[in-house]
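User: quick one, sequence for these tokens?
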């Protein structure tokens, strides 16, 4: 007998009719012979409404009381869903996070799951009940209610599926939502986006973390770590949705599977930072200690002993970021600047590792729209570009400021925020022809049959009570960071263009020149150094460096007499792989600390959910590799 975990999002339980539909889906799964756990979100806009209620009382509610308030939305919904199932003649029991022992840390409003006690769920399932669990919530070790962050019910569902798998069940998890599955990009922004049949865990992790709101990125960490077969599908139909699965060989053929837009980040630039070992560590350790996740990091190649470090944080964390860094910035003799409204467009695809020209195509598309790139960072399987939103829209803002109606103001504000970002998203989506049918998105793959995605039988299947307890014990720290490996690449060299004019199309031209000759560009970092000028660095195989320099230098002559190109052969790129690398702030901290202790300077930094990469001095490579292996306890 299998176990199906079905998660219904807010819109899929928004009213009595939808709750009943969800109940029918659960009953149908049970009738077909599976055991069923249902995880629900709060109904419709309940969570937003509760946040609004708090705002009517205070603009600075305590995080503990917010969690107490927000968790009620899901509690209402589990009771209603259990009633609906019972009313249809099937037995059901509802539980809050606390009742089934979802223990989290005490970071209110973005708590991480530490463990789940599956006993109460197992007992209810054994008694033939459909178990209905409140998403998004848990309790901390003091017994206080915590929540997992907006969209966190996905994470509850997959974490429960993972825990049940560990306890010996043959599990599958279905995420029911208001679209047919995971699309090549948000179908509400790009109407010709195509539904994917299959996407890999890593690709989904990057997509979600880069702004594809269809899944909470932390849920994918669980799915990958515990090998949970996962499908996103429509609550309003029976159509097969999108399978999220381990990477398959055919995926290497698809350089870009999707694009995403994030509009909730702010850019911070630290100028005049001493270019010495340990400085990045101080900056990012301070942020990590305050639990602020940093996204794009662009550190310029230092000259005259000073470097510029640019990074992005969530807009909601900007004020805290400034506070946390204030004294350090003063101590370093640096200055902190924040830059206006920005959006981030990212392309994601497993095949990017092997195919050249992805960056070039993306930058070309953006240049075609007259979009200026403020920052570029790459990861193993993604490229992100930060763009500035249109400043002419300031006029609209002024009108909105004068509007008294909060709802109208918010709606306009949301639309305004991403006008340029949306245009950029559409252009990039078109440039990669993502609306076309391909393997895994409209065309069959060798492995795209449902049955193949069904859970591999758990190693603990059909075990007795004692073994189950041992399995549950293994769940301790289940959301802890997982670093799976450290890798040193000694075959790369770095090319840097200094004082590149900061205007649309310039970067695209450089990459055009390099990519056209078939050179595979790996890590890219672009950052604005002084107003109007950018610094662009990228790594290429050492054997290709002189050719890449020559091509770039020839091109620069046509662009601007002031920009220069330089190359360094003696670099190494050091990568740390895992899941949740960016959102678990401790990874960067551990990495920078280990390198600082060895006195190794970090030249370039790139972060993504599945990989953090740094450029260091080649001669120190093996030592750095050993240091990181020890720091992360991997071989
Ligand atoms: P739920 O309430 O079910 O959790 P969400 O609103 O969190 O639903 O997620 C579904 C929404 O995610 C869709 O309505 C869609 O607009 C948005 N979305 C963003 N990116 C994507 C994508 N790549 N594929 C599908 N949906 C996406
Ligand atoms: N109700 C919570 C929210 O709106 C959790 C969720 O829907 O996943 O963020
Ligand atoms: Mg959601």
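Assistant:
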């Amino acid at each position: 007998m299998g176990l199906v975990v079905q998660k219904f999002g807010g819109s899929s339980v928004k009213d009595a009719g939808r709750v009943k539909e969800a109940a029918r889906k659960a009953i149908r799964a049970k009738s077909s012979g599976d055991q069923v756990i249902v995880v629900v979100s709060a109904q419709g806009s309940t969570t937003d409404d509760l946040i609004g209620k708090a705002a009517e009382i205070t603009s600075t509610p305590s995080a503990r009381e917010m969690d107490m308030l927000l968790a009620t939305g899901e509690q209402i919904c589990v009771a209603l869903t259990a009633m609906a199932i019972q009313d249809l003649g099937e037995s059901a029991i509802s539980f809050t996070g606390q009742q089934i022992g979802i223990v989290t840390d005490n970071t209110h409003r973005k708590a991480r799951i530490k463990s789940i006690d599956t006993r109460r769920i197992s007992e209810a399932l054994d008694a033939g009940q459909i178990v209905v669990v409140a998403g998004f919530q848990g309790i901390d070790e003091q017994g206080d209610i915590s929540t997992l962050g907006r969209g966190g019910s996905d994470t509850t569902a997959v974490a429960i599926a993972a825990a049940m798998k560990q306890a010996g069940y043959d599990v599958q998890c279905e995420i029911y939502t208001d679209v047919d599955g995971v699309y090549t990009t948000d179908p509400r922004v790009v109407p010709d986006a195509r539904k994917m049949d299959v996407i890999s865990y890593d690709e989904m992790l990057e997509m979600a973390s880069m702004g594809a709101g269809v899944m909470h990125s932390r849920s994918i960490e669980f799915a990958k770590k515990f090998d949970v077969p996962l499908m996103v599908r429509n609550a309003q139909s029976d159509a097969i949705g999108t399978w999220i699965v381990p990477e398959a060989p055919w995926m290497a053929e698809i350089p870009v599977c999707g694009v995403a837009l994030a509009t909730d980040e702010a850019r911070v630039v630290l100028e005049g930072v001493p270019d010495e070992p340990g400085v990045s560590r101080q900056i990012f350790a301070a942020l990590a200690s305050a639990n602020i996740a940093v996204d794009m990091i662009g550190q310029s190649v230092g000259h005259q002993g000073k470097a510029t470090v640019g990074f992005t944080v969530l807009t909601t964390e900007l004020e805290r970021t400034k506070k946390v860094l204030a004294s350090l910035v003063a101590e370093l003799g640096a200055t902190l600047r924040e830059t206006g409204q920005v959006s981030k467009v990212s392309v994601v695809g497993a095949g990017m590792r092997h195919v050249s020209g992805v960056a070039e195509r993306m930058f070309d598309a953006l240049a075609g729209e007259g979009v200026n790139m403020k920052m570029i960072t790459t990861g193993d399987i993604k490229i992100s570009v930060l763009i500035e939103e249109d400043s002419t829209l300031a006029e609209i803002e002024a009108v909105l400021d004068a509007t008294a109606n909060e709802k109208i103001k918010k709606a306009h504000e949301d639309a305004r925020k991403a006008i340029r970002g949306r245009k950029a998203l559409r252009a990039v989506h078109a440039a990669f022809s993502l609306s076309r049918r391909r393997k895994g998105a409209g065309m069959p793959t060798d492995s795209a049959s449902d049955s193949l995605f069904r859970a591999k039988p758990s190693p603990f299947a059909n075990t007795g009570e004692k073994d189950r307890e041992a399995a549950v014990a293994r769940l301790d720290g289940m959301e802890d960071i997982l670093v799976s490996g450290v890798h040193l690449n000694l075959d790369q060299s770095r090319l840097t263009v200094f004082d590149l004019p900061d205007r649309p199309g310039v970067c695209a031209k450089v990459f055009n020149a390099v990519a056209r000759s078939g050179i595979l560009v790996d890590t890219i970092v672009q950052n604005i150094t002084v107003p109007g000028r950018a610094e662009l660095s990228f790594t290429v195989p050492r054997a290709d460096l002189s050719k890449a320099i020559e091509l770039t230098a020839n091109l620069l002559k046509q662009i601007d007499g002031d920009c220069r190109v330089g190359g360094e052969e003696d670099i190494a790129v050091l990568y740390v792989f895992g899941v949740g690398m960016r959102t678990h702030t401790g990874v960067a901290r551990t990495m920078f600390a280990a390198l600082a202790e060895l006195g190794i300077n970090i030249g370039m930094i790139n972060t993504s959910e599945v990989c953090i990469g740094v450029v260091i001095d080649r001669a120190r490579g093996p030592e750095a590799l050993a240091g990181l292996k020890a720091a992360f306890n991997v071989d």
